[in-house]
């Protein structure tokens, strides 16, 4: 199971994420309490090397600015967290994660038809387009039949509930932000506990629960 920790804002935290086995980190360039500049991301990227995927999170940003920041910050993946149409994603040169707010009544078939490498399902929008610390009803996805190999689950995940979330939704990866924070800052102990919990879940754990 892959893990992305989003909202990383300093090199020390990024290096720790790498040390404990995080697969990807997210740099938020959209309006958010975790927003950072291209220059900050560039500095972090220079100290990280190439073993950790760097994801840039954007909300309704201009294509040219995304491409410029991606180049400057050595991004590996672009995450679109706004209302970007399919043709916008198709113009991007890097792999794309498209985030959608998911709730009862949402048409999963329409979401999955979006031309992205990965689909991220998040809780309904709060003050920001993500990182609001709330979850949606995972059981809405439990019995749905679709390709889960490109599904990333986000929204209100933490070490207490992530195992249940994985068993219910069976995603390719999970994405956490506020669930590994204390007083709005990334907490190394919570980060490590989250990683250990997720990496400790095996396929047998959630295959058995769906029989």
Automatic annotation (TrEMBL):
Catalytic reactions of this protein: N-(5-phospho-beta-D-ribosyl)anthranilate = 1-(2-carboxyphenylamino)-1-deoxy-D-ribulose 5-phosphate
Entry EC no(s): 5.3.1.24
Class of the enzyme per the UniProt entry, highest EC level: isomerase
One of the protein's GO biological processes: L-tryptophan biosynthetic process
Swiss-Prot/TrEMBL keywords: Amino-acid biosynthesis, Aromatic amino acid biosynthesis, Isomerase, Tryptophan biosynthesis
Molecular function GO labels: phosphoribosylanthranilate isomerase activity
Ranges of residues in domain N-(5'phosphoribosyl) anthranilate isomerase (PRAI): 3-196
Superkingdom: Bacteria
Pathways involved: Amino-acid biosynthesis; L-tryptophan biosynthesis; L-tryptophan from chorismate: step 3/5
InterPro entries per UniProt: Aldolase_TIM (IPR013785), PRAI_dom (IPR001240), RibuloseP-bd_barrel (IPR011060), TrpF_fam (IPR044643)
SUPFAM superfamilies tied to this protein: Ribulose-phoshate binding barrel
Protein family: Belongs to the TrpF family.
Stored PANTHER family: N-(5'-PHOSPHORIBOSYL)ANTHRANILATE ISOMERASE (PTHR42894:SF1)
Name the UniProt record assigns to this protein: N-(5'-phosphoribosyl)anthranilate isomerase
Species in which this protein is naturally found: Pseudobacillus wudalianchiensis
